[in-house]
Design a protein that fits this description.
- By secondary structure, the protein is mainly alpha-helical.
- It contains three helices and two strands.
- It has helices spanning 18-24, 43-58, 75-107, and strands at residues 9-11, 15-17.
- A hairpin with a 3-residue loop joins strand 1 and strand 2 (15-17).
Length: 108
Amino acid sequence: MARPRKRSWLDVGFRLDINALLRAGLKNGTHKVVAYRTQFLSPYNRAHFGIRRIEARLGKKPDDDALYRPKWQRTATFDRYCEKIDRYENVLDTQLLRSLGRIIAMTK
């Protein structure tokens, strides 16, 4: 007798791929579908992710700390990206100060 195939889909009136649901964030009965990559990140991790995304878009080199405007990009767009990086860095600075405050309070 042939062994039955393992089903990787549910039959609920239409074919529903379980693996696609897991990739989309529907797991363990939580019924939360993730719409954005940063949706469940903390503000600290979201700030790091945003900075890296902007640096990749601007073509930042790993050995250089400065940002350079790409030749094809308008100055206003580059300035907007720089302001966004500043906002993300403010979030990181705030988190750092909170963490330092906790460490200082623990040592007293």
